[in-house]
Amino acid sequence: MEEAGSQEMGMNNQEQLVKSKCSELSDTALQHTQSNCYGLENTGTLEEAEYITKNRKHLESTCCSQESREETPGREEARTDPPDGQQDPESEKHKEKTLGKEVLLLMQALNTLSTPEEKLAALCKKYADLLEESRNVQKQMKILQKKQAQVVKEKVHLQSEHSKAILARSKLESLCRELQRHNKTLKEENMQQAREEEERRKEATAHFQITLNEIQAQLEQHDIHNAKLRQENIELGEKLKKLIEQYALREEHIDQVFKHKELQQQLVDAKLQQTTQLIKEAEEKHQREREFLLKEATESRHKCEQMKQQEAQLKQQVSFLMER
């Protein structure tokens, strides 16, 4: 932040210096032009043109140096012009040569004109062009100043972002160390669990082997027992076969007995039917005899009643006769 502030102050001082130089050159050129407009000779016109050309070169060199400083604000000190006593003689010769060429070109352009008024008009036009270029340079300088301010702001923002990134990196490093410790702890725990799992697996394998041996022994015993059971099943099958044969013979005997019983039952049924018929006939005969006896009893009772009535009448007659 302090470096950015110092750079900004240096840029402001250089801008003020360039503006003051530009205004001085513009005022000087305007004064010389006005004086020439009131009747200077051809010699004065040439001196004025040379003076304007020198001022233009000085202004262009100053503005170009200012533009180069604004484009790369971090290298202002490296691009500042050295003092007059320390300048390279080759660069001075090159500047003088370039300036001499421009002066010669301007002189040739002025010599092509015939009257002083035309030469003065050409100088005024040249000055107006230089003034327009100076204004354009000032506008560009303002734009570059704004860009410089934006770059400074971006630099400050980037510095803050850089400090934040450094802080975040330190936090990430601490988190990474913590994560490494945690991973180491987890690795140790996983190794311990793996050892415990291996021990449990060995115990389970041993237990499984013991159980498998017991199952094999039981299977052998079951094989022996199954062989005995198969032998017993064979014997039982033979016995069952004999029993089935005996049962078949008994079934045949029972069928014969059932047939004999059926015949006996049919005979008994026939005898029963015959007996029933005889009983029925006897009952009918008994019924007829009973009816006959009942009829005779009824007639006898009727005769007895008649005889009782006759006896009563006779007793009455006897009693009547006795009374008489």
UniProtKB/TrEMBL annotation:
GO terms for biological process: regulation of cell cycle. InterPro entries: Taxilin_fam (IPR026183). It holds the Pfam family Taxilin. PANTHER family: GAMMA-TAXILIN, TAXILIN. Keywords: Coiled coil. Belongs to the taxilin family. This is TXLNG protein. Residues 9-20 have a biased composition (Polar residues). It comes from Cephalopterus ornatus (Amazonian umbrellabird). It comes from the Eukaryota. Residues 1-20, 57-96 are annotated as: Disordered. Residues 120-324 form a coiled coil. Residues 67-82 have a biased composition (Basic and acidic residues). The gene is Txlng. GO terms for molecular function: syntaxin binding.
